[in-house]
Amino acid sequence: MTKQILIFSDLDGTLMDHYTYKSTEALPVIKQLNSANVPIVLTTSKTIDEVKAIQSDLHINDALIVENGAAIFLPKALFKTQPKDTNSEGDYWVKSFCPPRQHWLDIIKKAPTNFASLYKGFSTLTIKELAEITGLTVEAAELAKNRHFGEPIHWMGDESSKLAFIEYLETAGATILHGGRFFHVSGESDKGRALNWLTQYYKETFQFNNISSIALGDGKNDIAMLEAADYAVQIRSPVHDFPELKKHINVIQTESYGPAGWAEALHQILPEPLPMQVCPANIL
How many CB atoms lie within 10 A of CB 117? Predict the structure, then answer.
């Protein structure tokens, strides 16, 4: 039996180049996957507004996992029936895994005053400042600031102060995830938990007994997703080493960086040519 394939992909440093934010080398593979009805679930620290724009550019129309697994957005155009335990928000059914952003902003605001000069959160950065830190355009930075479930922190102090600040946040109930440029303050959610929920939803919806999940990522905030997937692809980064994984079976570390590594790994894992998948273009 042909396995139903689900692909979960990080963006920055993975499907998008760390420096240019381009996906050029991956575009032919994306086209192949779309033709074969293989879902590509963008799984990222980015906001829903950011990812919708990226989806449009890449011609991907599947479910989205945003803000480091804090929520899954299921397009109503594809998923006709509302899944249980989801909310209806515009064009999406939304499954959230943690409290909203304001909860975490309140906790950050109550931090000891000696930390105040050592960091800036997305909520306090101007759009121009955020664009300068990230290399994003002003338009893209505006989308990045509109978060719903957590707060990214740009740390400017020393490492020992950073650890003390994180200890305060964790004691207050926050979960900290380390991304490429920021650490993220949110709830007890991660990309792996979201991957498991969505995989199970596909199994129940289509009565699949033979799903194979492939996760691709480059950073520490991708570890939970990589550990949860059947196949873990660690994308080589130009700025840091491969994060350490506990799993060792079905793990690939790419030779190429970013989207070139993304394409390299999927060519290695997937059959050629790709068989047509069971998932229809319009679901239920």
Answer: 9
